[in-house]
Amino acid sequence: TANLLLKSEKLSMLGQMAAGIAHEIRNPLTSIKGFIQLLRSNYSNHYYFDIIFSELERINSILGEFLILSKPSVMIFEEQDVKTIVKDIITLSNTQSILNNVQIFLEVESDLPKINCNKNQLKQVFLNLLKNSIEAMATGGIIEVKIQNKGNGEVSVIIKDNGVGIPEDRIPTLGEPFYSTKEKGTGLGLMTSFKIIESHKGRMVINSKVNKGTVIEVIFPAITQQYLEV
Ligand code: ADP
Ligand code: MG
Predict the structure, then answer these.
(1) 11 with 191: CB under 8 angstroms?
(2) Is residue 49 in contact with ligand 1, taking CB distance under 6 Å?
(3) Gap between the Cα atoms of 105 and 141, Å rounded
(4) SS3 label, residue 41
């Protein structure tokens, strides 16, 4: 729809700008971090230095998310198994999920076609989504991940949590930068994910109910037999 096109245009302009600025800010930031560390060793009270350092780290991670947006120009797409990518990410999220009393269950259909993708970018997407689900369950809970062959030349990954949920009127605006309900959130994870999925010709469908939970389905075009024989 017209609405979707507009969103992708906005994102690509924003991405170019963001990448340029992120590059420029990273260099002075690195030298500031170095000098702060030097100063810290001269003082016995490290408290203020630690705050400065953790805030600098925060700026650094925001810049990191922006830099992902600049990658598509040099992106390499390869034939990949979604299952392997998702399994890797679940393993990677293990420490965070255990700390938060969250259990992750994975269900994989046996007959899954491969997809054409950039592995690192997809890892970033699933990491963002799992992280959001874990963060949505302050007292712990269950995340169900399901990978399925949609049967129409598409593969989908469904991530379901029973967390705080998202208000209905907020759902259409998700993907806009800097919307975050978290004290330490950047509000960039979903924007980056939308952008990456879009560059893979996929789509993301979000369903949610406040106090019930959220279901996010990420759908990718599968590599079809026809395509392989060309
Ligand atoms: P951040 O995680 O830094 O806040 P995101 O772009 O990843 O930024 O997410 C934006 C916002 O969308 C979150 O702050 C949260 O309010 C909402 N959100 C995203 N995923 C979920 C989820 N699984 N459950 C509840 N809220 C979510
Ligand atoms: Mg997030």
Answers:
(1) yes
(2) no
(3) 11
(4) coil
Dist CA 117 CA 208 (whole Å): 27
Q: Residue 85 is inside which H or E element, if any?
A: helix 82-92
As a whole number of angstroms, the distance between CA 67 and CA 70 comes to 5
State which amino acid sits at residue 33. K
pTM: 0.79
The answer on pLDDT for 61 being more than 70 is: yes
pLDDT in tens, 168-206: 999 999 998 889 999 888 888 999 899 899 989 999 999
Closest residue to atom 20 of ligand 1, CA basis: 132
Between 124 and 145, the more confident residue is 145
Q: Is the model's pLDDT at 220 over the cut of 80?
A: yes
Output the six-digit token pair for 223.
């590599």
**With a cut of 0.90, is the ipTM above it?**
yes
